[in-house]
Design a protein that fits this description.
By secondary structure, the protein is an alpha/beta fold. The protein contains ten helices and 13 strands.
Length: about 280
Amino acid sequence: MTVALVTDSAAALPSELAAAHDVTVVPMWLTIGDESVHDGERELGELLGDARVTTSAPAPGEFEDAIRQRLGTDGVLVLTIDSEMSGTYNAATLAADTVGGPVRVVDTRTAAGAEALVVLAAAAAAEAGGDLDAVEQAARRVIDEVRLVATVPTLDHLVRSGRVPGIAGWAGRRLNINPLFEFRGGKVHRLRPAIGQPAALDRIVGRFTRSRVDGARLHVIALHALAAGEAKELLSRVEAEFEPATAFIGEFGSVMVVHTGPGLVGLAWWWEPER
């Protein structure tokens, strides 16, 4: 038997990869007025223009059910979205305390494609026969190394969330400024903005290329929120210069798109040194 893995839907891990690596995904929640649905149960077009939409973490009981279903293994490792972005980590920790036994919860301090890369690294360690300590160590190593750089076409959704002043969103629309940011260590770091999306994508690729580690294996995800064409372009540009060990496109679920708005595109990656 191997260590079992549980994560949340904020990881944007494609369902076929979750199935291939036997990862249980606990969905986040969306609330539209008086109606609550799981992430992915409603069409995005119905949600983006609705000011009543809010999001929330899975309930502790949902994590408890997922953990209990996997306890026949050599232990369970739960990997969650950054604890400062969501209450998911706290819900998973409550569930693990209730279940007891060989269960650990790790805050990945990131989200989306970067979170997915942490999950996949843990899965690789589990599939190699690692015990719970080894699988957790593999996850934490990637948490320390993974990077996520992205751009959004406007700040409108972030303005509505209260994260940036309203005038900043207005300026972005009027001046064709594409904000860029890096999410690392549980914090969003603003980068120099670009004039137009092509320049923003060039910036992302440039930042990625400069991070190259000679002799290391590349694991990379092109992530997007309703911007599949741009994500495909980014991944093609990476694959034209490198031969990744892991490479795929990760599409945001409804919960993430509600927060970022449509049009976000970026790269998440880490370089695995030779052992």
